[in-house]
Design goal:
alpha/beta; five-stranded mixed β-sheet; Rossmann fold; OB fold (Dihydrolipoamide Acetyltransferase, E2P); about 30% strand; single chain
Length: about 290
């Protein structure tokens, strides 16, 4: 394919705002949201994580429902709060999961450049992947992947894929850069490569990734394969791919964009901005196979 990116208009980035307790607003991307429904009676799940309060039926399938307040370490919603709450049915990492919240506020449209990375002081388990200053209100963008990993720690086995000796040697000879703002996603990506003893570099944001790509090109050791998340604060995956393809000083890598969204629009737009491939994260086998095509 041509590496020249398309100049078409990028899709809008929209966030769903909601509350868990009090007035503080939280957010998740609307592309993760399948439906919002009023709270209804749930079927209990014996032996499940304490934050999993039961299952609901969504389009004929049983969907587990998580009390999001409890999952992020706050007090669980009271019975009265549950009755007045809403269930946000999401599609994340190829799983349908319902999140019970106290109330849904509204949908906003944002530019990822205006989403700030959270301060390191929040710690690795703060479940916050970005901060948005909106009308003097600081909105916390939740790291849904981290939340799910805490509730379902055994749901993903990044080391489940294996390579032939020949394929392993091919990837060991490549310079690989991983980019993701989510702690869990970075660990999943890293574990998949660590399990095969494949070296790589890793960073948490698109700006640092672009610096690495430019520096490596200048010293004659260019990155061969770039694996980047799409939804990131600051320079997101779309813009990173577009900028790399439009920069004549960067030795062009094979670009794989990945997302937690099962969205045809996300995949289509990834190709338009110059990515070679777009994957729905996370499947270790698919990731390694894509890298071998690079």
């Amino acid at each position: 394919m041509s590496t020249r990116p398309s100049s078409s208009v990028r899709p809008s980035q929209k966030l769903l705002l909601f509350r868990l307790h009090g007035k503080r607003l939280f957010a998740i991307g609307t592309l993760k949201v399948r439906e919002i429904t009023p709270f209804s009676r749930l079927n209990r799940l014996p032996g499940s994580h304490p934050a999993v309060i039961g299952t609901t039926t969504f389009r004929g399938s049983a969907v587990p429902v998580i009390d999001m307040a409890a999952a992020v370490g706050s007090r669980p919603l009271s019975e009265d709060e549950k009755q007045q709450g809403s269930i946000i049915v999401t599609d994340v990492q190829r799983q349908e999961i319902g999140f019970l919240v106290r109330s849904v506020d509204r949908i906003i449209e944002i530019d990822w450049k205006n989403v700030k990375a959270p301060p390191a002081a929040l710690g690795e388990r703060a479940f916050v992947t970005g901060l948005i200053d909106l009308d003097d209100d600081l909105i916390q963008l939740l790291d849904v992947e981290l939340l799910l990993a805490m509730v379902y720690p055994d749901a993903v086995d990044p080391a489940s894929a294996s390579l032939t000796e020949r394929d392993s040697e091919i990837l060991k000879a490549k310079r690989i850069l991983l980019v993701d703002d989510s702690l869990v996603a970075r660990k999943q990506l890293s574990d998949a490569l660590d399990s095969q003893a494949i070296p790589y570099q890793v960073t948490t944001n698109g700006t640092e990734a672009l610096d690495i790509l430019m520096t490596q090109s200048k010293v004659g050791q260019p990155i061969d394969i770039l694996v980047s998340d799409i939804e990131m604060p600051g320079l997101d995956g779309y813009e990173l791919a577009f900028t790399v393809r439009d920069n004549a000083t960067v030795t062009q890598p094979y670009i794989i964009l990945h997302t937690s969204l099962n969205s045809e629009m996300s995949v289509s737009y990834a190709k338009q901005v110059g990515a070679n491939e777009a994957l729905t994260k996370f499947d270790a086998r698919e990731l390694l196979a894509a890298m071998l095509r690079g």
